[in-house]
Amino acid sequence: MKLVLDLLIGDAQSDRVVPPTGIAARLTVFVAGAMAFLAVLAVALTLTAARVADAWANELAQAATLRLPVGADDALVIAALNLLETTPGIASARVLSDAEQAALLAPWLGADIGLDELPVPRLIAIVAEDQGYDAAGLRARLTGEMPTAVLDDHGRWRAPLVQAASRVRLVGWFSFLLIVAAMAAMIVLAAHASLAAHAQVIRVLRLVGARDVYIARAFVRRFTLRTGLGAIGGVIIGLLALELLPDADTAGGFLANVGFEGAGWLWPLVIPLLAAIVGFVATRAAAMARLRDQT
Amino acid sequence: MIELDNVSYGYRGQPLFSQLSLELAPGSFHFLTGPSGAGKTTLLRLCYADLQAQQGQVRLFGKDATRLDRDAVALTRRRIGVVHQDCQFLDHLSVAENIALPLTVSGRVAEAAANLSELLNWVGLAEQAHQLPQELSGGERQRAALARAVIMSPDFIIADEPTGNVDWEMSQRLMTLLTELNRMGKTILIATHDLNLIRTIKSGVSARVLRLRGGLLDQAGAEL
């Protein structure tokens, strides 16, 4: 806590001994802002992609389809519905209408298809209760009572979706780490440039008895604050950019939720803090290394 | 207080001096003279740990300088006031801030306010306190450098050609300030090639005059 207070309040006299840097200071603010902007986008896209994939996976986990053979009569459909309604864990089951089936085929066959001309099976949409149902048991019953019916619980689709979601998360967080590492590298370079530009100041400070930690502190405080302030600016611009993304009506629903939700809103607060910590650690390491090398 | 024992130093393989020995007792006053390039500044830099001896041993306040870590070097320098020929100011700070710099970097900022006004009066720079160093004349800069060197009340004061850029009157004034410090018990080592100045000051203070020439350090003789 004392360290944080020291950084925020500082020591005006100590700060005065190192003159304000020109280009290195502006570069640090710019780099921190740009990286924070990218970090906001990376985190927002990662969280959104993961959220969308989770929603898809959950919806599929709750849903299943019972496929009856082409030309199945109404008696078979009613028998199937009765069987499903008496199965524990199934919340509802209903036959898809012709219009719904046509809508499912429309992306591949066009909107004006006639279902009567196609060998289309009868489909019953099943919605499971939260605790789910015994799919293996239901399959066994179906095999005994109506062997032509096929239960599809979407397991084939769900597994790749979950895998894709974890990959998206992984790539997103890896991008975030790269952004943080790139920011640290740029700050180290800027700190080195600033220290090199102030070689004579450092020499004078040494001659009058300044310890390395004292000299480093003046640079570290300055770079930490600049990084933090730059990152706050970058986060604000990043949030504005997210607001400008297309909404549901213009982007088919997928981009509607790009951004932060719930606890995810902590990230815009965490990013400037993280940037300041990166600035502190990177500058301190750079300053101490440079001071060790510089006589 | 400061001991050099068989110290050697050179640049790019060329020895500047070798097996040089020197002991500065507390409260003593030494002039170091010799031709340009003889190694006077190098010898002084060894005395405030700005250089490390290539051979031999330098002991600062009883401690082997080669065994001092970076923090220890900084703490040792707080006990040594140095007046550089080119003054070495921070140009963005005022004269007063430059003079107070040793206290500032030592975290003794409160003391700076208390000591500064007295010190500025002592060196005659009270009116120039808020000016920038580049606005001062050569003599004023040297006096400011002297004030900065003594603000920590160091045990040992080193001055490298302190009168190199000032007129005769200002040289005498600076020397008077240094002899006052010696009377207060400070150890003084002044490098200068101005023999007239040495002759003038030597009469008023018990000073040893050392001559560095051809890599050898000896006591100056009859020419003084």
From TrEMBL, chain A:
Domain of life: Bacteria
Transmembrane segments: 24-47, 170-195, 227-245, 265-287
Main location: membrane
Cellular component terms per the entry's GO annotation: cell division site; plasma membrane
Domain ABC3 transporter permease C-terminal positions: 174-289
GO biological process: cell division
Compartments, as annotated in UniProt: Cell membrane
PANTHER family attached to this UniProt entry: CELL DIVISION PROTEIN FTSX
Alphabetical UniProt keywords: Cell cycle, Cell division, Cell membrane, Membrane, Transmembrane, Transmembrane helix
Species name: Yoonia sediminilitoris
Lineage of the organism: Bacteria, Pseudomonadati, Pseudomonadota, Alphaproteobacteria, Rhodobacterales
Keyword Transmembrane helix belongs to the record: yes
Membrane topology designation: Multi-pass membrane protein
Keyword Transmembrane helix carried by entry: yes
Protein name as annotated: Cell division transport system permease protein
Automatic annotation (TrEMBL), chain B:
GO terms (BP aspect): cell division
Gene Ontology cellular component list: plasma membrane
Residue ranges of domain ABC transporter in the record: 2-224
Keywords: ATP-binding, Cell cycle, Cell division, Nucleotide-binding
Source taxon at top rank: Bacteria
InterPro entries, per the entry: AAA+_ATPase (IPR003593), ABC_transporter-like_ATP-bd (IPR003439), ABC_transporter-like_CS (IPR017871), ABC_transpr_LolD-like (IPR015854), P-loop_NTPase (IPR027417)
Keyword RNA-binding: no
Keyword S-adenosyl-L-methionine: no
PANTHER family reported in the protein's UniProt record: CELL DIVISION ATP-BINDING PROTEIN FTSE (PTHR24220:SF470), IMPORT ATP-BINDING PROTEIN (PTHR24220)
Name of this chain's protein: Cell division transport system ATP-binding protein
Species for this entry: Yoonia sediminilitoris
